[in-house]
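Board notes (copied after class):
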Amino acid sequence: MNKPQQPLRPNPKKARRDRRELPIGLIVAVLTPIFGSAILLELYPNIDLDELDNYSLNTVIVRLLTFAVLINAGLFFLALRLNREGLGRGVLMGTLIVAIAIIYFKFLA
C-alpha cells in the first residue's frame, strides 16, 4: 500500500526571505515613476513642464504613471519567474499605490 503523504510544511527560510524582499519590491515599484519620468524627459527633451496648463500637466503625469505601471508589470513577472514571491508582492503593492495616484490625477485633480 501507499504510505500516507505528510502534510507540506512552510519553509521558514523562504518565509524570512519573503519578508525581507517585500519592502524592497515596494520601494522599487514606488520609485519606478521617477525613473520613467527621467526616461521620458530624455526621449522628449522639448517638453517644458513649466509652460503646461493644469489639465495638460495632469495628462503628462497620468501617462508617466501609466508607463511606470507597465514597467512594474514587467518587474512583477520577472520576480515570479525568478521565484522571488516576496519581491513580486512588494512590486504589486507598489503598483497599487501608483494606480491610486493615477486615479487621483485622472479624476480628482
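Comment from the instructor: The chain has three helices and no strands. Helices lie at 12-43, 54-81, 85-108.
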